[in-house]
User: What shape does this take?
Amino acid sequence: MTAEQVVFVLAAVVTLGSALGMVTTRSVFVGALWMIAVFGGVAALFILLGAGFLGIVQILVYIGAIAVLILFAIMLTPRVMGDPNAPRYNRQWPLVAVMASALASLLVALVLRTDWPLAQEGAPTITGFAVELGKGFMTTYILPFEVASVLLLVALIGAIVIAREE
Amino acid sequence: MEALDRIFIRIGEAFSTFLAQYLPAPVVTVIGMFLSAIIISTFAALTFMLLTWLERKFVGRMQDRIGPNRVGPFGLLQPIADAIKMFTKELITPAGAHKVVYNLAPILVVAPSLMIFAVIPFGRDMVAADLDVGVLYLIALSSATEVAILMAGWASRNKFSLLGAMRAVAQMLSYEVPLVLILLTLVLMAGSMRLTDLVAVQGVPFAFLQPVAFVIFIVAAAAELNRTPFDIPEAESELVAGYHTEYGGMKFGLFMMAEFIAAFGMAALVTTVFLGGWRPWLIPLPSWLWFLIKTYLVLFVFIWFRGTFPRLRIDQLQAFCWKFLVPVTLLNVIVTGVVVTFVPLVRNGEVVVRGIGGWATVTVVYFAVNVVFALVVAWLYRRPTLQAVQQIQVGQPAGRGLSREVQTA
Assistant: This one.
């Protein structure tokens, strides 16, 4: 095995193991911590694939912002904090099981049907990835980019309006 | 001079040529990487020791005390005595704590602060990993610290810890916004997120081209580091010691270490992006020495803050960030964007400013724009500020009054 493969296996094991830990733990808070480990593993995979920019953005956005917000939300919800004997299932579990298996089979079907292209030996690596990404956002994909920005701004203002006192 | 400037690089090269006689090339590369990681971590640990001494000594002097003076000359060996004390203390895990998370948190809080050093250019060609997204990497690290702080606060099962962690993270999240916006301004000017490029562009330090951003950056950096006057997360009178209340011995030492190393890292970042990094100022000293001098100057300013300012209240802190720093830095991004369009520093990755005349023109233009910008901001904020000051004097929360004033204005 080359060094890259070793790192890949390590990152994949961390990602999958943490995902398992996340769904099997009883504490919501610990589950969120496992999820952070999953994000870290995915970031490592991005960096391994030569997309260092995406890897760092993954850490910045998912670990630094989304995961911290989730932890905050958990901490501000007294009922889910602390009780280690909280029930793991509620009455809706059959419905959830159906939905989850439907999603899982969809994903498996897609993975099996996709023809995964392999990079040839000595294929050119991605250089100036961040530059290309930035140019893409500002030229070809400017409309989706701006629409997403406006949507986020609306969500932000909406949250402030809902949360305001008076 | 030249030899002294490159002394560390020469030593490294000599060592790898020596190893290359006995070992295959890939092994030498891996050993080199490990060695530079070890050297940088050791440097960080030594910096931590020196900083604890410096901080106590300086603050002592500012408060008309002598500070540490018993162990060694000038109390210089005090950090070693402290370290021995910390190592020999019993490691206690509180009964109600979540053991794994409780013990993991101090490790996870130190790791990102050590990782800062990987991208900082300590001197000419002295950088461990010259990432093309260096600025982003530093921001990502500082936000990864927040998770570790939340872990520490939650796993301790102590109300003070939890409150301290929530305060710390809320503060760090808020003050990250102006920090990022200022870094964005500088990235706009340099046309690159690579820290070595940012140093290369600074024929004149960016502190002169962006004085407003420089001052705001120092303030926001102090808040991001939870340092006085923004040390609300560990306000002793309210919260015992904040998120590390339940930690003792070396586990507590690791939190201290993370704080001091992060302070050094932030000072190094200020040096790199605002003070021209390792570039010498007038006196030709080795580049790494200049870098250290500037970094310690910035650190001195942080310590000076601590010896001078009283602590803010939490509503003042958040109001100051969201109602003043964020709008101002956001406006600064726009203003700088316009200026960069007309007076560019960099075009297609090449510095286009030439000679003393060129740099003088650029400095005057940027400085003038910044002064006008500062005056406009001061004019815009004159009424809410006066209102807030009056309300503080009669003892009402500052945040409310400021928001109502902004709504009616």
About this structure: DSSP finds six helices and no strands in chain A. Chain A has a mean pLDDT of 83.
